[in-house]
Amino acid sequence: MPPMNTSALRPAVPLLVLIIAGCIIAAIGNGVRTSFGLFTLPMTADLGLSREQWGMAMAIQNLAWGITQPFAGAFADRVGTARTVAVGAMIYALGVLGMAFSPDAGLMTLTAGVVTGVGIAICSFSVVMAAFGRSVPAEKRTLIFGVATAASSFGQFAFAPISQGFINAFGWQSALLYLGMALLLIIPLSYALRGRTENPVGEADLPFMQALSKAWGHGSYRLLVIGFFVCGFHLAFINVHMPAYLVQCGLSPEVGSWTIAVIGLFNIVGSLLAGYYGGKLPKQMLLATIYLLRAIAIGAFLLIPVSEITAYAFAAAMGLLWLSTVPLTAGLVSLFFGARYMGMLYGVAFFSHQLGSFVGVWLGGFVYDQTGSYSLVWYLAIVLGLASAALHIPINERKAPNFVLKAA
What we know:
Elements (H helix, E strand, L loop, with lengths): L14 H19 L6 H8 L3 H29 L1 H19 L5 H18 L2 H11 L5 H30 L1 H12 L2 H4 L18 H9 L2 H30 L4 H25 L5 H21 L4 H14 L3 H13 L4 H30 L3 H18 L16
Helix pairs in contact: 1-6, 1-7, 3-4, 3-5, 3-6, 3-16, 4-5, 4-8, 6-7, 6-16, 7-8, 7-12, 7-15, 11-12, 11-15, 11-16, 11-17, 12-14, 13-14, 13-15, 13-17, 15-16
């Protein structure tokens, strides 16, 4: 068998079918998740929750997602992607349906936080990308990762106005029930992702901790993991608190929903561009540029008076930079270590991303409750963007010399 970093395994279904099914799964899963910010105002008002209590439930969701992700990736690597994604979809749907019947902060933290977060992790596009990684030739992986990320962004674009329409027409509780039922569509689609990543001939089947220890010994991987924290901080804070922030600035809830949709629309372009140029230019420099541009975009948004035009312009700019980090980060992980441990080691990087998400969501609610404003968190987002840009510059884009899979 050829080396895993230069070849691909034959998928159980035609590659095009696998990619299409995986992209639809990514779109549904991400579309539902990114609509949760639209529920901030109606749910906190009806249930008497503080902004911090709601933010904590969303923060726990991101943390549970992050903690579960490496294990979900390792499980998919070993037992197969289809079963993993199908189980995740059921748990995800259960969590969203449970949100509709959670009357207080404690139960909301359990359903919206723990259950939903675990479900997202097990059927997330990170697991889908592991299926792509084992089936797509190495030279095309970053591009296909970009396609998968663009598909997840289309889900954000499509589900934001749909979810807001459901809320307006039927109320937030019924809207959550409809979203939960939509997640069940992932189960039959997961059949196309059958298969697991096989061991190359002559290479050891390393246990989780041993593989992680060898990977963590690679300095570029450590920088990548630490920098990914900032991506999670930006995305979660903006996704959950941006709609409420715009209402605070005098705009309508519909503007908030369309802002999230515009981010998703422009991220389709950003993700495809990142996937394309990631195969031609140094990935670490592209990542540094993305984080620098995020800091500039946020700074400009804070300096200019908020209006519908500036909200949509900011959403377009952030959309181009939104998940464009994902194909580049996943591409570097695949380059460093090959496809065998893609699910697990990208999952570890994603855990850092979700720690950032936890801090961004919770801190947004906490700062708002304490000060009546989100300004401090916006300023912190600028500083973190600059720091992450600096962290990515020293990354060395080559296979990790200390990640040796052959048995001693």
